[in-house]
């Protein structure tokens, strides 16, 4: 399977344009969450339904600070199954694209959230020894991939001696390692959750010493430090499920990062 990619942010800012090699072989795996249903904000919403309206998408992008979600143009050679030929061609093709891409990670691109639109469908040839037509489809996907240095708010999923794991609801593989927690942070055993800890930041100002807890009650604001696309391991050596995309975040800052209540109470 070969796919050519062109990557365009929804902002259409030419400074952010990135060219990816044509004929990239692409799909890794789906992040660890139920297919086509992910939490967004405080409710459970089917992502394809949520992102089906262009107006809603552009409103969301403006509200969220533009850069977390981007539009990517893809071209894919698609064989349409005979039982789908009774459907309108756009409907049949979109359904196949959603089955192929939604909730999947494309290496070096990001997490596919929704099929935004179909720009062209060409071909329809039936090749020798094949009982179905093959089309060349050009379409756009909504991709989740924040930029390095972006400030994002997420919630605590788990906390251990290695640091924090955060979730956006629709994406759970955000890690804040202990080295990127605020200076003077320490871990204490969590009596309520086995094998977890509570991280506490000790803030010193002149003669005052205050302690601030990182818990699951508050949104946590972090800076994107890096984005990783690990290779699929040949053997699973540990109990941690494989994640095709990981975001590494940081809480190291002069001010403003960490649980939002920290800065409200100061």
Keywords summarizing the entry:
266 residues; mainly beta; Dna Ligase, domain 1; OB fold (Dihydrolipoamide Acetyltransferase, E2P); 2 domains; elongated
Summarize the structure.
With 266 residues, the chain is mainly beta.
Sequence of strands across the biggest β-sheet: 2-1-5-8-7-6
Write down the overall mean pLDDT.
76
CATH architecture of the largest domain: 2-Layer Sandwich
Distance between the termini: 55 Å
**Element string (H = helix, E = strand):** EEEEHHEHEEEEEEEEEEEEH
Number of strands: 17
CATH superfamily of the largest domain: RNA polymerase Rpb7-like, N-terminal domain
Strand content: 35-45%
Q: How many domains make up the coordinates?
A: 2
- Bulk shape: elongated
Number of helices: 4
Report the radius of gyration as a whole number of Å. 22 Å
CATH fold category name of the largest domain: Dna Ligase, domain 1
Structural class, please? mainly beta
Q: Low-confidence runs (pLDDT<50, min 5 residues)?
A: 1-66
How would you describe the overall organization of this protein?
This protein has 266 residues and is mainly beta. A hairpin with a 2-residue loop joins strand 13 (197-205) and strand 14. Helix content is 12%, strand content 42%. It starts with a strand and ends with a helix. The strands form four sheets. A six-stranded antiparallel sheet has the order 2-1-5-8-7-6. Strands 9-10-11-16-15 form a five-stranded mixed barrel. A three-stranded antiparallel sheet has the order 12-13-14, with no helix packed on it. Mean pLDDT is 76; it is low at 1-66. The chain has helices spanning 47-50, 54-63, 89-101, 260-265; strands at residues 3-8, 18-19, 38-40, 43-45, 69-79, 105-106, 110-125, 134-144, 151-160, 163-167, 174-177, 185-189, 197-205, 208-214, 219-228, 246-250, 258-259. The chain folds into two domains: 3-144, Dna Ligase, domain 1 (2-Layer Sandwich); 151-265, Beta Barrel (OB fold (Dihydrolipoamide Acetyltransferase, E2P)).
């Amino acid at each position: 399977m070969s796919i050519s990619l062109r990557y365009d942010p929804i902002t259409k800012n030419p400074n952010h344009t990135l060219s990816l090699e044509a004929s990239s072989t692409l799909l890794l795996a789906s992040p660890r969450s139920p297919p086509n249903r992910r939490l967004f904000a405080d409710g459970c919403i089917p992502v394809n339904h949520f992102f089906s309206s262009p107006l809603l998408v552009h409103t969301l992008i403006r509200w969220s600070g533009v850069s977390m979600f981007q539009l990517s143009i893809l071209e894919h050679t698609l064989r349409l199954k005979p039982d789908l030929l009774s459907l309108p061609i756009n409907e049949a093709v979109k359904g196949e694209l959603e089955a192929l891409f939604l909730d999947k990670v494309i290496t070096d691109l990001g997490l596919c959230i929704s099929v935004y639109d179909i720009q062209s469908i060409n071909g329809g040839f039936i090749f020798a020894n094949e009982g179905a037509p093959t089309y060349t489809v050009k379409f756009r996907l909504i991709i989740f991939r924040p930029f390095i240095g972006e400030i994002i708010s997420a919630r605590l999923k788990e906390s251990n001696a290695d640091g924090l794991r955060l979730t956006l609801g629709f994406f759970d593989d955000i890690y804040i390692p202990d080295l990127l927690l605020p200076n003077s942070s320490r871990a204490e055993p969590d009596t309520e959750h086995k094998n977890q800890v509570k991280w506490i930041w000790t803030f010193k100002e002149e003669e005052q010493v205050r302690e601030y807890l990182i818990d699951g009650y508050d949104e946590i604001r972090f800076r994107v430090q890096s984005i990783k696309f690990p290779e699929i391991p040949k053997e699973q050596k540990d109990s941690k499920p494989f994640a095709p995309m990981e975001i590494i975040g940081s809480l190291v800052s002069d001010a403003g990062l960490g649980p939002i209540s920290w800065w409200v109470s100061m």
